[in-house]
């Protein structure tokens, strides 16, 4: 994806016009296509000419010749799908997620920059964005205003100059998501300044307002929020629409809400979809096994949304919202040649996919045009540890612990026994819990209830802060899991009875795998199976790990500052220096 301000140079524009004058041949023609014309909001039949990565003509005419003619007789063609809310670090990485998504027709992605902010120097992060532009999809980015946790060095990471540089980058098309909106309400003028700068640059601001009242949503709109993806009911959708917000309907691994939302919207007579789009909201890998945006389109159609509206929610609406309809979301001259060829409009999983004029899938077969990324060049490398886990690191004396209510919500609980020994008894459903600074400077020691009752040793470098999480009933096995995670250079490890039971290597900053998406799905499914056998009662351990340190959800978290009360915004017990 070259320069966005000058997508095509003068020479390329002249060549594209020469195709219309029959002085040059199109590189590809989709012949006899039944296609969605979004401006007309109807299905038309004709021929779609492309020159390299751009649509140059739609209509009845055929060129005298073309480099390739693809017969679409009996097929239906729609714009490439747009995923507006990607967290591209849920074990997978931005490249592997994009490759997997593109095979299912999602060829434009708007990515969270949180892990690039936390893990990389700004210069390397920007160089990585340029490298990812070599992929045959369209990748855009957000700019975070906060870390969604409590960091000792947050002021350094979220320095004014850094945030302004991100906002000014042409690949960044929105600010947010606003996980720190309570700070905004409490008077954080730096965040408000960044929001004003974002609006001045004609870029969008994405909210994060679960459970927000009408009053709070109104305040957020006045501050500058343009949209939100946290609707959990039809009433939530209505409140956001009434405030003029773009409503992103979510169907994710921790909030698979789309069917419920559509049912309740119907009950409220909400049948206008122009201010709505879809997201899978950075799902755990296995949630994607049966589809991404294509799955959401199918759910919408099955729940009575007119097919054209369903496809617009996955393409045209998002393109208009981000002011990119000159490039995306429409089958018309001048737009990028990103198209999905379907059996018909009731089967949104495409049999063929074009992205930026390149075949991603053709006649049901993957074409694998995605170049490898040398992650190490940009700073995403194996974790290295110059410190050892010692006996003091596994000493526990805190009077209360954390209890899991569901996948991601936690609350305080009493410690049920003396925690000074080497083991917890497994039938007590309570385990040791340690958060260790990646650099070995500090630790937080407590207990966790409700995670599992038969886990002996568990270690993970996967967390929202890139620090190390240890869980288990046996200090010996926790240490074994940690040592193996350390050998891997980052990862998730389950140990018991002197053995490593399962591991997921995460060599990219301890957060992401470098393996194909399908491999990561298998690894995650195995982890879920093993944890379920050992008493994990929920369905998304990946998000449980991610959000143990996240302070944008209630009620109590472990952070780099210590045990943290989210509602009172106070540190209950500080970290212990090692």
Automatic annotation (TrEMBL):
<dbReference type="InterPro" id="IPR032466">
    <property type="entry name" value="Metal_Hydrolase"/>
</dbReference>
<dbReference type="InterPro" id="IPR026912">
    <property type="entry name" value="Adenine_deam_C"/>
</dbReference>
<feature type="domain" description="Amidohydrolase-related">
    <location>
        <begin position="76"/>
        <end position="353"/>
    </location>
</feature>
<dbReference type="Pfam" id="PF01979">
    <property type="entry name" value="Amidohydro_1"/>
</dbReference>
<comment type="similarity">
    <text>Belongs to the metallo-dependent hydrolases superfamily. Adenine deaminase family.</text>
</comment>
<keyword id="KW-0378">Hydrolase</keyword>
<dbReference type="InterPro" id="IPR011059">
    <property type="entry name" value="Metal-dep_hydrolase_composite"/>
</dbReference>
<dbReference type="Pfam" id="PF13382">
    <property type="entry name" value="Adenine_deam_C"/>
</dbReference>
<dbReference type="GO" id="GO:0000034">
    <property type="term" value="F:adenine deaminase activity"/>
</dbReference>
<protein>
    <recommendedName>
        <fullName>adenine deaminase</fullName>
        <ecNumber>3.5.4.2</ecNumber>
    </recommendedName>
</protein>
<feature type="domain" description="Adenine deaminase C-terminal">
    <location>
        <begin position="408"/>
        <end position="569"/>
    </location>
</feature>
<dbReference type="InterPro" id="IPR006680">
    <property type="entry name" value="Amidohydro-rel"/>
</dbReference>
């Amino acid at each position: 994806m070259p320069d966005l301000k000058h997508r095509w140079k003068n020479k390329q524009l002249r060549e594209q016009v020469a195709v219309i004058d029959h002085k040059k041949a199109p590189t590809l023609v989709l012949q006899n296509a039944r296609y969605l014309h979004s401006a007309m909001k109807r299905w038309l039949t004709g021929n779609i000419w492309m020159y390299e990565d751009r649509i140059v003509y739609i209509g009845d005419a055929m060129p005298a010749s073309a480099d390739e003619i693809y017969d679409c007789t009996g097929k239906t063609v729609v714009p490439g799908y747009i995923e507006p809310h990607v967290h591209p670090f849920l074990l997978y990485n931005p490249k592997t997620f994009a490759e997997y998504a593109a095979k299912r027709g999602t060829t434009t992605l708007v990515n969270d920059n949180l892990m690039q902010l936390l893990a990389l120097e700004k210069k390397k992060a920007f160089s990585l964005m340029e490298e990812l532009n070599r992929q045959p999809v369209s990748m855009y980015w957000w700019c975070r205003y906060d870390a969604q946790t409590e960091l000792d060095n947050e002021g350094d990471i979220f320095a004014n100059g850094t945030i302004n540089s991100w906002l000014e980058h042409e690949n960044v098309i929105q600010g947010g998501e606003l996980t720190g909106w309570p700070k905004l309400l409490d008077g954080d003028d730096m965040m408000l300044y960044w929001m004003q700068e974002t609006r001045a640059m004609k870029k969008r601001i994405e909210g994060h307002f679960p459970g927000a009242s009408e009053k709070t949503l109104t305040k957020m709109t006045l501050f500058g929020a343009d949209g939100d993806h946290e609707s959990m009911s039809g009433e939530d959708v209505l409140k956001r629409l009434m405030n003029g917000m773009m409503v992103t309907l979510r169907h994710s691994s921790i909030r698979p809400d789309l069917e419920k939302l559509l049912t309740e919207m119907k009950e409220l007579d909400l049948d206008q979809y122009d201010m709505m789009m879809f997201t899978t909201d950075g799902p755990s890998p296995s949630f994607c096994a049966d589809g991404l945006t294509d799955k959401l389109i199918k759910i919408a159609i099955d729940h009575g949304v007119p097919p054209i509206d369903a496809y617009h929610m996955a393409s045209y609406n998002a393109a208009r919202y981000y002011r990119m309809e000159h490039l995306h979301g429409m089958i018309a001259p001048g737009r990028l040649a990103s198209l999905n060829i379907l059996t018909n409009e009731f089967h949104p999983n495409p049999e063929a996919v074009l992205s930026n004029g390149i075949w991603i899938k053709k006649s049901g077969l993957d074409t694998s045009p995605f170049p490898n990324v040398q992650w190490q060049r940009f700073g995403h490398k194996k974790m290295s540890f110059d410190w050892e886990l010692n006996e003091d690191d596994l000493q526990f004396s805190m009077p209360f612990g954390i209890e899991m209510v569901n996948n991601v919500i936690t609350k305080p609980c009493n410690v049920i026994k003396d925690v000074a020994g080497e083991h917890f008894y497994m039938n007590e459903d309570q385990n040791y819990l340690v958060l260790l600074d990646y650099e070995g400077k500090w630790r937080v020691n407590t207990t966790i209830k409700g995670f599992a009752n038969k886990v002996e040793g568990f270690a993970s470098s996967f967390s929202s802060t890139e620090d190390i999480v240890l869980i288990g009933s046996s200090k010996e096995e926790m240490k074994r899991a940690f040592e193996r995670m350390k050998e891997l250079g980052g990862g998730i490890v389950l140990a018991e009875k002197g053995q490593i039971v399962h591991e997921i290597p995460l060599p990219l900053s301890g957060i992401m795998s470098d393996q194909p998406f399908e491999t990561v799905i298998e690894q995650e499914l195995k982890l879920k199976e093993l944890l379920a056998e050992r008493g994990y009662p929920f369905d998304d351990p990946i998000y449980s790990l991610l959000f143990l340190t996240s302070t944008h959800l209630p009620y109590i978290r472990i952070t780099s500052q210590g045990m943290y009360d989210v509602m009172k915004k106070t540190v209950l017990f500080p970290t212990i220096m090692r």
